[in-house]
């Protein structure tokens, strides 16, 4: 089953980072290579064997078995059921063995359907495996051989007259074989459809995961650029102030001069290292920003330009925040309002809540309009990546009564002083 193997491999490749995935793939791959191809290995063989043996015993009790129950009879009864154990590995040879054994037994007993269970199961399995043409040839040959052995050559083979099938038995047998082939084709089509659906789902899951990974990577890149701008600005300022202090402090003790010299040297070295490591993250054509750093002090400006009515509520004692937390909070509110503008109803309103708690900053952006298309898209993935990078968390989802809610909690243990 190539589709099944593809799905197993796709599922294995689309789940990186999870423990035990290699073992899971190896287990699925092993199951696909087993002689029985998964499922009950001997269930059909046992069932067919029971039908054959008990059917023969009933026929013997009714006087319709024209041979004693010896080793030959049991061998013919069990050859087909035993061959079913390999029906998925070699469907056509199994069908040949089951058909031949049942034909041989048919010359020893009156026509009964119980003796055809193994060939019927083998025929269904062969058609389901895509070997319909070869299976048709086998059953056609067997169907012709049945009256040939029991009627045409009956005298020569010393076949009892009670073993000869009538027209009714031959028609019922032909109908049974036709229905079995039809059901086998239907089962094959259904299996292929399910395998294709599984393949499509695996591809979609892999594409979504790649998109989320790419979005998170882009978000980290943008944060790295912002970090470069902030560090570059502040370290440059430290460098200038240290140089001025060094120039004006000539009349101070030598210890102060040494301290200022160390500040200048350390800040210059840090500035060079930051630019060397992070400078490659900024495209050559991109210039450094000339506007103030983004933060919650510009929240009013953000809500006024949101393009929809926004109510802002701030609770708790406002305090200076670490630059990265302040910037992340602004970006989360900005992205959440952008999502409201894109996906919510035209008359939607938004409510932004900022709560200063000891050790954390809690954000909430709620809109009251229906948002049928909003989900765990790239914007929410980016917001979640920002929060998790700082050690926080973010949740987003639709509200029971309509609308959408985005909440985030960002730790502020290192509040700016």
Describe this protein's structure.
The protein has 417 residues and is of the alpha+beta class. The chain has three domains: 2-206, no CATH class; 218-281; 296-411, Histidine kinase-like ATPase, C-terminal domain (Heat Shock Protein 90), CATH 3.30.565. 61% of the residues lie in helices and 9% in strands. It contains 13 helices and five strands. It has helices spanning 2-13, 21-33, 43-61, 71-83, 91-106, 117-128, 132-152, 154-157, 167-248, 254-278, 299-304, 323-343, 378-389; strands at residues 310-315, 350-357, 360-367, 393-398, 404-411. A five-stranded mixed beta sheet has the order 1-2-3-5-4. It starts with a helix and ends in a 6-residue tail after the last strand.
SSE blueprint:
Blueprint: H1 2-13, H2 21-33, H3 43-61, H4 71-83, H5 91-106, H6 117-128, H7 132-152, H8 154-157, H9 167-248, H10 254-278, H11 299-304, E1 310-315, H12 323-343, E2 350-357, E3 360-367, H13 378-389, E4 393-398, E5 404-411
Parallel strand pairs: 1-2
Antiparallel strand pairs: 2-3, 3-5, 4-5
Helix pairs in contact: 1-2, 1-9, 3-4, 4-5, 5-6, 5-7, 6-7, 6-9, 7-9, 9-10, 9-13, 12-13
Notable characteristics:
417 residues, alpha+beta, Heat Shock Protein 90, elongated
């Amino acid at each position: 089953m190539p589709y099944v193997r593809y799905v197993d491999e796709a599922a294995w490749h689309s789940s990186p980072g999870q423990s035990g995935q290699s073992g899971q793939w190896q287990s699925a791959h092993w199951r696909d290579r087993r002689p029985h191809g998964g499922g009950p290995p001997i269930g059909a063989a046992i069932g067919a064997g029971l039908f054959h043996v008990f059917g023969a015993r009933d026929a013997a009790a009714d006087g319709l078995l024209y041979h004693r129950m010896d080793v030959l009879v049991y061998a013919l009864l069990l050859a087909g059921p035993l061959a079913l154990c390999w029906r998925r590995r070699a469907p056509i040879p199994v069908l040949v063995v089951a058909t031949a054994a049942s034909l041989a037994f048919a010359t020893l007993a009156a026509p009964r359907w119980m003796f055809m269970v193994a060939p019927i199961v083998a025929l269904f399995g062969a058609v389901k495996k895509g070997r319909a043409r070869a299976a048709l040839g086998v059953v056609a040959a067997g169907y012709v051989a049945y009256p040939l052995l029991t009627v045409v050559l009956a005298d020569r083979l010393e076949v009892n007259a009670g073993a000869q099938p009538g027209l009714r038995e031959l028609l019922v047998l032909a109908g049974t074989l036709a229905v079995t082939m039809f059901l086998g084709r239907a089962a094959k089509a259904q299996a292929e459809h399910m395998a294709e659906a599984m393949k499509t789902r695996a591809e979609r899951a892999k594409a979504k995961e790649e998109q989320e990974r790419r979005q998170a990577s882009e978000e980290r890149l943008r944060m790295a650029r912002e970090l470069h701008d902030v560090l570059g600005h502040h370290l440059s300022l430290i460098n200038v102030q240290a140089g001025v202090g060094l120039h004006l402090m000539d009349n101070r003790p030598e210890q102060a001069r040494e301290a200022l010299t160390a500040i200048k040297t350390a800040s210059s070295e840090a500035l060079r290292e930051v630019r060397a490591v992070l400078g490659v993250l900024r495209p050559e054509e991109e210039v450094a920003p000339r506007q103030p750093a983004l933060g919650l002090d510009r929240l009013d400006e953000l809500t006024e330009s949101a393009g929809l009515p926004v109510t802002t509520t701030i609770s708790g004692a406002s305090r200076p925040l670490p630059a990265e937390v302040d910037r992340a909070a602004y970006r989360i509110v900005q992205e959440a309002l952008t999502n409201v503008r894109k996906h919510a109803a035209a008359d939607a309103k938004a409510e932004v809540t900022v709560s200063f708690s000891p050790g954390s900053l809690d954000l909430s952006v709620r809109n009251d309009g229906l948002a049928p298309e909003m989900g765990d898209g790239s914007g929410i993935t980016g917001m979640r990546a920002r929060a998790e990078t700082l050690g926080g968390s973010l949740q987003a989802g639709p509200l029971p009564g309509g609308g959408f809610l985005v909440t985030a909690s960002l730790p502020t243990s290192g509040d700016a002083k």
